[in-house]
Amino acid sequence: MTGADATISGRTVLAIFAHPDDESLACGGTLARLADAGAHVVPICASSGRRGSISDPTLVPGDDLGRVRANELQEAAKVLGIEETIVLDHPDGSLRWADVPEFHAEILAALHTLKPDAVITFAEDGLYWHFDHVAVHERTRTAVQSLGDEAPALYYVTMPQGAMRGVVDTAIAKGGRHLNAGFWGIGPDAFGSAARRPSFTIDVRDWVPRKLAALLCHRTQMGPGNPLSWIDEDDARRLLGTEQFRRARPHTGPSVLEALGEAAVRPHGRSRT
Question: What are the pLDDT digits (tens) for 100-117?
Answer without folding.
Answer: 999 999 999 999 999 999
